[in-house]
Amino acid sequence: MGLSKIGRKGIQYLQNRNTANVSNALLEKGQNRVIDASLTLIRERAKLKGELIRALGGAVASASALGVPLGHNSSFLQGPAFAPPRIREAIWCGSTNSSTEEGKDMKDPRVFTDVGDLPVQEIRDCGVDDDRLMNVVSESVKLVMEQDPLRPIVLGGDHSISFPVVRAVSEKLGGPVDILHLDAHPDIYHCFEGNKYSHASSFARIMEGGYARRLLQVGIRSINPEGREQGKKFGVEQYEMRTFSRDRHFLENLKLGEGVKGVYISIDVDCLDPAFAPGVSHFEPGGLSFRDVLNILHNLQGDVVAADVVEYNPQRDPVDGITAMVAAKFVRELAAKISK
């Protein structure tokens, strides 16, 4: 049975018990305890990592992984809920070394640390709804950012997590960011299939909230009229694959973040052509190559304050975690970009 089905059964059971004279106060107290315990672990792990980095002489910025294994807001398959541990396994796979392409060592805590996963399913099993869950995700991100010099790289999970993560980053830094969003889809539906937190609506929530000044969407090749209209409404810069050869020079020389609080990078693994990343829920041929994405990342000028890597689906990864290695390399190169 999938995580989402288990979660729904748990929620339905609690709701049924609630109608059988189980008080709201009792249920809410239990939920509060589970949420507090979950956030305490993230807080203490982040505190420890920050202390370790400072003991080593400090850093201006250091990337820290936070897993958010959430898949129930996917409109198709929900396998991304299983992604964070598989990405971690691939980061440290013995088939490669610990150096990034820019020569930074992932074993150096000043480059990369890990504060673990937010236990999303355990929280949902307590009957916590998505309004509150998204607040918990935001709070977990803020807990990481409170520990100087940590900057979060969030491991999804489906793309719905980008909304609470960007919201937290913007609120913590005190203003909007510029977002570089790499994806086959614009994820900007107003309310896809009636779900305001759908993974297909995350960037509509971000733009409505004023959390981004500029939103650049790169790799787009599955977009309908609503996606284009929403893009126009919010002033989104959409770069479709059908014009990538024309746009390549501009995209490989981006300068973002000036006049705002920095740059946020969101990488949906399906930005890549399925030939490079078959372990995704939505196959969209005609995408970016892995090197296309790295060229954009490596050449980007701007202060990267946070990032996410989302929509890797281990349940569709056909050959010994090949797409996990792709997602892991995105994390490694983002860590190199963030750390300084």
Structure characterization notes:
The protein has 340 residues and is an alpha/beta fold. 42% of the residues lie in helices and 15% in strands. It contains eleven helices and eight strands. Helix 6 (162-173) runs parallel beside helix 7 and helix 10 (290-299) runs parallel beside helix 11 (322-338). The N and C termini lie far apart (43 Å).
Brief overview:
Helices cover 42% and strands 15% of the residues. It has helices at 3-19, 24-55, 83-91, 120-124, 130-145, 162-173, 202-208, 225-234, 244-251, 290-299, 322-338; strands spanning 62-68, 112-117, 150-156, 177-182, 212-220, 237-240, 263-268, 304-310.
Radius of gyration over all CA atoms, rounded: 19 Å
Largest beta sheet: what is the strand line-up? 2-1-3-8-7-4-5-6
Poorly predicted regions: none
Count of helical regions: 11
Structural class: alpha/beta
Main beta-sheet annotation: 8 strands, parallel
How much strand? Answer: 15-25%
The portion of residues assigned to helices is 40-55%
Shape: globular
List the helices and strands and how they pair.
Blueprint: H1 3-19, H2 24-55, E1 62-68, H3 83-91, E2 112-117, H4 120-124, H5 130-145, E3 150-156, H6 162-173, E4 177-182, H7 202-208, E5 212-220, H8 225-234, E6 237-240, H9 244-251, E7 263-268, H10 290-299, E8 304-310, H11 322-338
Parallel strand pairs: 1-2, 1-3, 3-8, 4-5, 4-7, 5-6, 7-8
Helix pairs in contact: 2-5, 3-11, 5-6, 6-7, 10-11
